[in-house]
Amino acid sequence: MSAFDEAFVLDLRIQFCGEADQTLQTLENLLIQIERQPDPQKLIEMKRSLHNFKGSSRAVGFANLSKLAHELETWCEDGSMASRVDRVLPLLDAVKAAMNAFLESKDASGLIDFVWDLA
Known about the structure:
Shape: elongated
Structural class: mainly alpha
Largest sheet: none
Strand content: under 5%
Number of domains: 1
CATH class: Mainly Alpha
Distance between the termini: 38 Å
CATH architecture: Up-down Bundle
Radius of gyration: 15 Å
């Protein structure tokens, strides 16, 4: 990859992290609301946000984040998200921490190799 291409990808990933931070905050807020009172409309909104996050993360080369978003989308579809909030909130915090580490170091390996355990 040329220096121009590397700089371009880096810029895209930085922009992704800025937008993803807002998305993750929205997801956290929705999770808290869903935990308090499950609401089909909130699940639809959450699924929509996860779907956008999934596509954006794949576009910038963060395939594992995309796979994670896909799994969480499935939980919205099957109605099990409300019972899994306690597992998802720390996971979103871990994604934020990996994004912050990337923004500080410009080393994307933490996001490229992001691993999670949903068990």
